[in-house]
Design goal:
Immunoglobulin-like, 3 domains, 22 strands, mainly beta
């Protein structure tokens, strides 16, 4: 397996700002990163409950982001922690904003689930680093820190810190690579992973487990797979999928029998 890694990093800002947004109020505005030298003004409209899923309320809030500075605001991601009237955290949401030119306004919507009545938020803000995630071959599904991101190639916004990217594609061995995003890199870059071909058969079970080995036989009642030299019989109803690896065998030329000697 070969790994190719190139990174690009932008500055990172961290802010934890307590807000007070109560139901029934028209909303609240907060200046970021500070009130004395603001770059961005975020206005959260009142919470609206749209449904209930698994005992938790589903809420939305319209958000208006206004760039109040002479500088353009790059793409940004805000993690919004939702709290109740006692300040206990009851929900979490992700607010993503695209680039906002100077003195321009952008509208977005916050959606979250909460185990209670939301009454306030705490804002965690950080500028992200867009990196292009590639794979060889293309079209591999991948996860970043355990969260599905779709298929390659794709641009993903990474926060500064340590990440793990997991790749998978049918017919190829799964791959994983760590990614360390620091604050002193130059703009521009991508991360790429070359997937290796599978050298063993794969028996995918319905419980999500994968067995790597050599499939010896398949019948109406079960599958026998040899794993690390030991044969295991798996009941047929436990098997979801079997991926067989093509094997190239060399055939020896047939043995030639010497011509029988003439009987005297």
């Amino acid at each position: 397996m070969r790994r190719i890694l190139a990174l690009s990093i932008l500055p990172f800002f961290f802010l934890s700002t307590p807000l007070s947004v109560a139901q029934g109020e028209p909303g609240i505005a907060v200046s970021w990163p500070s009130t004395d030298k603001p770059l961005l003004k975020l206005t959260f409209a009142k919470f609206q409950q749209t449904g209930i899923v698994n005992g938790q309320g589903i809420f939305t809030s319209d958000v208006t982001a206004q760039n109040v500075s002479e500088q353009g605001m790059p793409r940004s991601v805000f993690t919004v922690f939702v709290t109740d009237a006692k300040g206990i955290r009851i929900g979490r949401a992700r607010l993503q904003l695209s680039e906002i030119p100077p003195y321009r306004t952008q509208k977005s919507q916050l959606q979250f689930s909460a185990a209670g009545t939301p009454a306030g938020v705490a804002l965690l803000a950080g500028k992200t680093i867009p990196l292009r995630v590639l794979s060889i071959p293309t079209g591999a599904n991948f996860k970043v820190d355990g969260e599905d991101q779709g298929a390659t190639p794709k641009v993903v916004d990474f926060t500064i810190g340590s990440h793990t990217i997991d790749f998978s594609k049918e017919g190829y061995a799964p791959g994983s690579t760590p990614l360390e995003v620091s604050a002193d890199e130059l703009p521009g870059g991508s991360v790429s992973l070359e997937l290796g071909g599978m050298s063993q058969d794969v028996v995918e079970l319905r419980d999500g487990q994968n067995l790597l080995g050599d499939v010896i036989s398949v019948s109406l009642t079960g599958v026998i797979v040899r794993v690390d030299g030991n044969d295991q019989k798996i009941e047929r109803n436990r098997v979801k999928k079997i991926i067989l690896v093509e094997r190239v065998t060399s055939q020896s030329p047939p043995l030639t029998q010497p011509a029988p000697a003439n009987a005297k």
